[in-house]
Hints:
The complex is a heterodimer.
Chain A: H1 2-21, E1 47-51, H2 58-74, E2 78-81, H3 89-101, E3 106-109, H4 118-126, E4 130-134, E5 145-148, H5 152-167, E6 172-178, H6 184-197, E7 205-212, H7 217-230, E8 234-239, H8 242-253, E9 262-265, H9 269-277, E10 283-286, H10 289-304, E11 315-317, E12 323-325, E13 331-333, E14 338-341
Parallel strand pairs in A: 1-2, 1-3, 3-4, 4-5, 5-13, 6-7, 6-8, 8-9
Antiparallel strand pairs in A: 10-14, 11-12
Helix pairs in contact in A: 2-10, 3-4, 5-6, 7-8
Chain B: H1 2-6, H2 9-28, H3 35-60, H4 68-84, H5 90-114, H6 119-138, H7 148-154, H8 166-183, H9 185-195, H10 197-202, H11 207-233, H12 244-254, H13 266-285, H14 290-321
Helix pairs in contact in B: 2-13, 3-8, 3-9, 3-11, 3-12, 3-13, 4-5, 4-6, 4-11, 5-6, 5-11, 7-11, 8-9, 12-13
Amino acid sequence: xxxxxxxxxxxxxxxxxxxxxxxxxxxxxxxxxxxxxxxxxxxxxxxxxxxxxxxxxxxxxxxxxxxxxxxxxxxxxxxxxxxxxxxxxxxxxxxxxxxxxxxxxxxxxxxxxxxxxxxxxxxxxxxxxxxxxxxxxxxxxxxxxxxxxxxxxxxxxxxxxxxxxxxxxxxxxxxxxxxxxxxxxxxxxxxxxxxxxxxxxxxxxxxxxxxxxxxxxxxxxxxxxxxxxxxxxxxxxxxxxxxxxxxxxxxxxxxxxxxxxxxxxxxxxxxxxxxxxxxxxxxxxxxxxxxxxxxxxxxxxxxxxxxxxxxxxxxxxxxxxxxxxxxxxxxxxxxxxxxxxxxxxxxxxx
Amino acid sequence: xxxxxxxxxxxxxxxxxxxxxxxxxxxxxxxxxxxxxxxxxxxxxxxxxxxxxxxxxxxxxxxxxxxxxxxxxxxxxxxxxxxxxxxxxxxxxxxxxxxxxxxxxxxxxxxxxxxxxxxxxxxxxxxxxxxxxxxxxxxxxxxxxxxxxxxxxxxxxxxxxxxxxxxxxxxxxxxxxxxxxxxxxxxxxxxxxxxxxxxxxxxxxxxxxxxxxxxxxxxxxxxxxxxxxxxxxxxxxxxxxxxxxxxxxxxxxxxxxxxxxxxxxxxxxxxxxxxxxxxxxxxxxxxxxxxxxxxxxxxxxxxxxxxxxxxxxxxxxxxxxxxx
Lengths: 350, 324
């Protein structure tokens, strides 16, 4: 009897977890009405879909729903956002397939794996969609354009500069709290940070560990905790991911390390405001994700309208952000990272 | 009523549900039922079906194997690592992977049959253990530089159709497993040990040995699914197929196999695998919001898993009352 109760409990638990794991679709809040117009030769009525690494993530909520959507409304297209609830490449493939079947004109995607979604993206392109990657790229042959939020070099430089400034001239041990172990952009930045650390002006900083919080709040929190337990002389943590830096900030601000162990990285102002105000974090960096999504939407629309082909040297206008030129490897650069600190953080709300 | 039950009424329920989803979906949602739709559904179904076949047999004997997705992950990692270290013969790679899967399955089987430990506990343990080993093998790397001919051939369609050719392999395997389960003494033995292992043993069924080989078969089939997964996504990663065991177990249970053992069949399970994928893809095409989709899938599973048990319990209670 007892075995049966356990078995029944297991069955129910599995049913629940299956439900929780079921890949889901986000509502496309299609709103083609409003718009400022003035988008020149961009076709109206383009179906533009955003496929973030993960839905319900504040970063992508800002880039998609506060950036991409605004742009799509400006050029009178049909906006939608859809995507998996966990950062899984195979789940993203399923959504790409769906978008391709729905006859989407522009797919703006942030890749969970640079290879795994390639086949699906190419099938979508054969079906007529233009593919723009933003935030995290795929292999260049699988997309038409990559909207780069900032160069790896720029991002690495600003984070090393910030941690060095925060720790002071004595230097010491530092560690990195990253996203998933396979995250394309984080890994590129970490490599560049290592190059940057090799420079003579940072000779007193020593990178002792890199850990992965999987862009999961609790895992990141535990990893931050683990870093301090493992490295008693740690002077600073760099977390090049918004989930990681917020979790590490929460841990540090509630611990005796507050103000003693420095924290910087890439974060959003709303998540970090409290930790900047209470002295846990002196400064951190990021681009404006809303601008990133906005640019991605305009770039995709320019491709789908035949204004550009995605070749190096192509020029297009992205609404309020002005004119952009396509660079090497079909990449468009948003700009330099922005540093947020106590005296400017209140101006931002995302 | 009796005839209906003997036909396997739950199989019929699942197949009717599948037909309904397809008919209603085609009528109301643009894109459902098109050749491309079936291609995407089949691609999703293949790895789940490959594992669901042996797992059905295991659950019928009253055991379970939750380590299947971790076996896939470890297989993918080892295959990626072998490829990266210069093993470039495709048949050799596949053979090594299947062997690895069989060994991993044998490890499960050993603990369950020789040491007599509950399979639930053993395979929850190996779920974590095998996934951990996958990270040890491949770490944070992804191996993705396989020849395009391998990766595109794995999912290339049957000439003239959109459905991938790999479905033929799954079909042959399904027939094989169905014959073993439904038309041989071995199959009857599986039901017997699921209903009452003690009685089956007295009746001369080699309970431990059969279960051991079932775990070996599940391991090998999981690694086959892992090989397909790696080529389909052109990427071997330690976290490949993470969490897929839930999809497989859910399909087996929705297919009418009793978690207590002794009841169920392969027709229902295959129907359930296709039903779940079709429903999810159709709802996704209909742009159903995430929360609603989760609720629909969850409700369906709970109803199908708990429903038959509640009915069974009620029936038993009535039967007990009547003679008294």
